[in-house]
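fyi for ur records
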Amino acid sequence: MEFPRFPQQKSLFLISSGKFTTVIFRHTSGARAPQLRLKPRDIPKQASLLQEHIGGKLHTIEVNALSELDSLVWLYLPSNQLSVAPYETFRSVLDTLQILDLHENPFNCDCRIAWFRDLVRDQKSRVVNMPRETRCEAPPLLKGKAIAYVTGQDLGCVVEDSCHPFLPCPSLLLLLLLTLLCT
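which gave:
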């Protein structure tokens, strides 16, 4: 079977069989390849497996790129250049995903990745593939640390664990007080 070639030798292979659809992205032009961005129009709605093999060039997944993929069960995006994994990007597929593989990406570990850390830590969930290989690249203090082991404080988030369950967190009270004083 002959597959079509796209500009800059990027190609998209679509293999369809009944309800199972696989999308595999490939890139063969080597180190001179441009930074790639995954957009909603790049993926058919019925995709159940999305696997990326484009030579580690995927830098960005647009927020709504996965929003209409209600059949997506496997998402493989390892060894790319993803530095952030915003919850808004993955929110629509979290209920259907059985495998999410984002290991060996240079993640900037800040509060935006806390949702992913929680998913990795969830013992009931076996969604995240290779959680110990999914590590922080930045900030320097967290470089090389598995995302599963970073704390909310490491990420610069408000540490909810230190709050009383029936009282607001002190940091939230301080924020409210500052807001009232500044208005």
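The helical segments are 87-90, 114-121, 152-155, 170-182. thats all i got for now
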